[in-house]
Amino acid sequence: PFIGGNFKCNGSLDFIKSHVASIASHKIPESVDVVVAPSFVHLSTAIAANTSKCLKIAAQNVYLEGNGAWTGETSVEMLLDMGLSHVIIGHSERRRIMGETNEQSAKKAKRALDKGMTVIFCTGETLDERKANNTMEVNIAQLEALKKEIGESKKLWENVVIAYEPVWSIGTGVVATPEQAEEVHVGLRKWFAEKVCAEGAQHIRIIYGG
User: Fold this and answer.
1) Active-site residue, from 93, 100, 149, 165
2) Which residue of 29, 52, 74, 200 shows the fewest CB atoms closer than 10 Å?
3) Any transmembrane segments, and where (predicted)?
4) Last residue of some domain: 58, 81, 105?
């Protein structure tokens, strides 16, 4: 099981400290991954407040290159240096607002996976795409870009958590029904079985976010 919380561009030092400490104080089964993703400026505070080895702190994004002259960006190496193990990649707000392409998201994921991180790889369609009956086409295209980068590597895919998050349900007050989410989950798992690994399709984690 996987439970994740993305703080996005929200919170203060006191807020992050108290909330992470509160979550960490609960007994988290070792079989469950609980992950929280504060903003970059709050990562150190979250790490310091985390007293549980079962609670993971994640970054909300990462750059597709290593250390270098990339003003305003953060490399995988920097995340690892902080002791982070998880990173969110391809969130719809990165794609829709920041103009991140499927190919860029996939390259970011490849770098993080190659360095041993767990990638929470987001997919999702807009309302117009859903109305045009292109839901699966859009979501699969986003995963196809990732497959192009990492191939059928069992080792790398084992560290991928697919987060289906329909764009039309994020921050809108409209939530996908269980049936809508399950339909996409089934379709993504079917794609994985046919295009990546039939055995692995039974184990790859596909979650809903919105």
Assistant:
1) 165
2) 29
3) none
4) 58
pLDDT tens, residue by residue, 27-63: 999 999 999 999 999 999 999 999 999 999 999 999 9
- Per-residue confidence (pLDDT) for residue 171, from 0 to 100: 75
Q: Output the domain CATH number for residue 160.
A: 3.20.20.70
User: Given this model, what pLDDT does residue 170 score?
Assistant: 82
- Asked which of 43, 58, 73 is the last residue of a domain, the reply is 58
Give the range of the structural domain holding residue 119, as residue numbers without chain letter: 61-208
Which one of 42, 86, 91, 93 is the catalytic residue?
91
Number of domains in the chain: 2
The average confidence (pLDDT) of the chain is 96
Q: Is 194 among the catalytic positions?
A: no
For the question of residue 73 being annotated catalytic, the response is: no
Contacts 24+ apart (CB under 8 A), 6-10: 6/36, 6/37, 6/60, 6/88, 6/91, 6/209, 7/36, 7/37, 7/38, 7/39, 7/42, 7/60, 8/39, 8/60, 8/93, 9/39, 10/39
